[in-house]
Amino acid sequence: MELRHLSGFVAVAEELHFGRAAERLHIAQSPLSQQIKLLERDLGVKLFDRTTRTVRLTAAGHALLGPARHLLAEASAVRRTVQAAHLGEVGRVTVGFAGASSYSALPLLTRAVNSELPGIELVLEGQTYTGEALGRIADGSLDVGFVALPVRRGITARVVRMERLVLALPDSHPLARQDEVHFAELAHEPFVTFPVARGSAVREAMVQACHDAGFAPRIAQEAPDSYNMLALVGAGVGLAVVVASARAIHLEHVVFRPLVGDDVPVLPIALGWRTGNRSAPLQAVLRVAEEVLPTPPDAPDAAALVS
């Protein structure tokens, strides 16, 4: 039993047409028919019922289809692993993330890396906000992180998301009856936000927007992550300014409203890594990230935004 025979069998089983299967495999129909005959001879069973007009799987063909797909997938994984080892794409890459922006982007990256780079293990480190992430990338204890701009010198970044700020509030709050909210309307409201010591860009943007609107925000409580923050909002502790991606977190009694006005910033969210880090595993992950997390067309030039 050869892999190419199994590949031919799966193609015919899925197409139920020898001509289309041959086109899919980029071979002539006659060699494909010969492969199926050799496979049937090897197994001692008939895999297809064929007429001049139809092709149908036999009971034996149905039984073979699942294991054949599994074997071909395993063979492909083996091939990718060996090629990755040859290219040096084997090892661990640590990824720092925090907040709703990375909650949305991270699954896209991890699934793609697991599929395309089987030799690389992603080590995910949560609650790593921008300030902490930039420091750890600089000292080498973190390979790459989701960060807000600007980044510090010595760190390279590529924008992967543009995040608008929205207001999270209890569904019983008077402002919940409005379609949109201006920052100036929040002057006398208590806020729930991320810890100041963690270097959250969302917190910094919220504080700056409040000052631009003519008031200093009153912080009622800090929360370690977006889920806990929204839980406190639902409990009536305060309102929260969050990125729009946080709307994917569904909690009872919490609603979101757009924030409007000239003082509402849009946050560029980027992947950041240490400039000059030529680690083969890191470079492979960055290559995959560029495929699944492309730079938005309205994104600023990250290289121009360095503090």
Topology (SSEs and partners):
Elements: H1 3-15, H2 18-25, H3 29-43, E1 48-50, E2 55-57, H4 59-87, E3 91-96, H5 99-116, E4 120-125, H6 130-139, E5 144-148, E6 155-170, E7 181-182, E8 190-193, H7 201-212, E9 218-222, H8 226-234, E10 240-243, E11 254-260, E12 266-274, H9 280-292
Parallel strand pairs: 3-4, 3-5, 7-11, 8-9
Antiparallel strand pairs: 1-2, 5-12, 6-10, 6-11, 6-12
Helix pairs in contact: 1-2, 1-3, 1-4, 5-9
Helix share, percent: 40-55%
N-to-C order of helices and strands: HHHEEHEHEHEEEEHEHEEEH
Mean pLDDT: 90
- Weakly predicted, low-confidence segments: none
Q: Largest sheet, described in full?
A: 8 strands, mixed
User: Mind telling me the C-alpha Rg?
Assistant: 27 Å
Q: How would the global form be characterised?
A: elongated
Backbone structural class: alpha/beta
The total count of helices amounts to 9
Could you give the count of β-strands? Answer: 12
Report the span from N to C terminus. Answer: 61 Å
Can you give a write-up of this model?
With 307 residues, the chain is an alpha/beta fold. The protein is built from nine helices and twelve strands. Strands 3, 4, 5, 6, 7, 10, 11 and 12 form an eight-stranded mixed beta sheet that branches. The protein has a two-stranded antiparallel ribbon with strand order 1-2. It is elongated.
Concise synopsis of the structure shown:
With 307 residues, the chain is an alpha/beta fold. Helices cover 41% and strands 23% of the residues.
